[in-house]
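Good morning N.,

You mentioned wanting to compare the apo and holo forms, so I went ahead and generated the holo version with aspartic acid. This is what I fed in:
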Amino acid sequence: MRIRPPFAILLLAAGLLAAPPAAVVHGGAGSPRARMDGTDPAAAKALAALKAGGSALDGALAGVVALEDDPRFNAGTGANIRLDGKTIQMDAACMDGATGGYGAVAAIERVKNPVLVARKVMDTPHLLIVGEGATRFARAMGFPDYDPTCAENKARFQRVQAILKGSDPRQIEAWKRYDWKKAWNFPTPLKEALGSPDTVGCVTRDAKGNFAAAISTGGTTITFYGRVGDVPMFGAGIYAGPKGAVACTGNGEDIIKHLVAKTTYDLLAQGLPAQEAVDRALKAFPPTIDLGLVAVGPATTGGGCNYSAEKKAFVTDYRNQMAWSVRE
Ligand code: ASP
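and this is what came out, ligand included:
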């Protein structure tokens, strides 16, 4: 039976009809709008998985895998090379809103798709597996050895010295005051170089009205060996529940302190449309620390970022920043 639009809106509002499947992906707080040529197809892949009968979780994973496999994004292939010029450590997580299932990996090395390893963690009694244990867990699950180094992350590694020289406003205050060279903890000697930040994320609503979120990153600028950000921290980088899903990007330490994903999810649970929840989360965040997020609710989608990659400045017209894409 075809339900006419005004009726459909009433039924949706009453929670009696699931809205059509939807996927919202982001390419990271530092990603320029032009990079939507990567987030658009990733969102399309997530939606295709949902339309093929996949669960919200299947869709979210498909969206993130597409971005992990695009070497221009800082996740999976193309993830940041660390300060020693060779180490790549990645964090990833996924959450199923229907079951509350959660799985994450942190500081994992030498795998192609960290988010798929996170999905395997969801099936264990654990929530988070880190470091060498995560890499060994991946091997036990059949993920082969893979080097995420490529031309794109090598070129990024060469460019990052400019960031250290002081032209990027996202160099957070704490790092300006802290002599990080003294705390160098990589096995190999210090090279004066930095990685650039970014994360990729995807939130979905499936045909049954269930939600999921997935996220993956190579970590932030000036990152020590073993550093872990918001991405695998429960409630910080992603959250999904019966009323929606949220995925964040930006400076992980502050995202953790503000528990951004769960806080934003709570706004969705109160009935706020997704875009309004995103805008409120951004407004409540320190205006000179980068934060981007995407969200999906029972009938709405939204996204935005407080940093403009084009202007290299913090801004308040959140919706027009960062590469983020919606497909429904
Ligand atoms: N949130 C990520 C982290 O702190 C990085 C990013 O999204 O830019 O690891």
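The two ends are 20 Å apart (CA to CA).

Happy to go through it together on a call whenever suits you.

Best,
F.
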